[in-house]
Design brief:
alpha+beta, 5 strands, 137 residues
Length: 137
């Protein structure tokens, strides 16, 4: 399955993907792959868990809507959506380096508060988005 998606992405984006490896300490609602390309550029490929019953949250739609909102609001702390396939349930995103937190400091809570404020500010033309709640996150 991953090879087929990589070929689709190569064809659709023209990005020369050299290597890919699954990130094993990921969430339970999707699979995440780190894609390595020429010139040292990396991307994240997220393959979302398919919806199997009507009560399931459409995680592809929820995350894609949120990322598009962040891009419109010029929120720089989130990955950029490069390419996506709703029918196949995946998104190619810009790679964001980071480290897994081991604790929570005042500086961390200040950064979190700033991020929440930033994603809720209306910049430019007024937009209204309905985001799904993530009850199991």
């Amino acid at each position: 399955m991953i090879k087929q998606i990589i070929e689709e992405l190569r064809s659709a984006t023209g990005i020369q993907m050299l290597r890919w490896s699954e990130i094993t300490d990921k969430g339970v609602n999707n699979k995440v792959w780190k894609i390595s390309c020429a010139q040292g550029k990396n991307y994240a490929l997220k393959i979302y868990k398919p919806i199997t019953n009507p009560e399931d949250i459409d995680r592809y739609y929820a995350e894609t809507t949120f990322l598009k909102h962040c891009a419109a609001q010029k929120v720089e702390e989130t990955p950029q959506l490069i390419y996506g396939s709703r029918s196949k349930g995946y998104n190619l995103l810009s790679w964001v380096d980071g480290v897994r937190p081991t604790g929570l400091t005042k500086a961390d809570t200040d950064q979190i508060a700033t991020f929440i404020k930033e994603i809720n500010e209306v910049k430019g033309q007024k937009q209204f988005c309905r985001f799904h709640h993530a009850p199991d996150s």
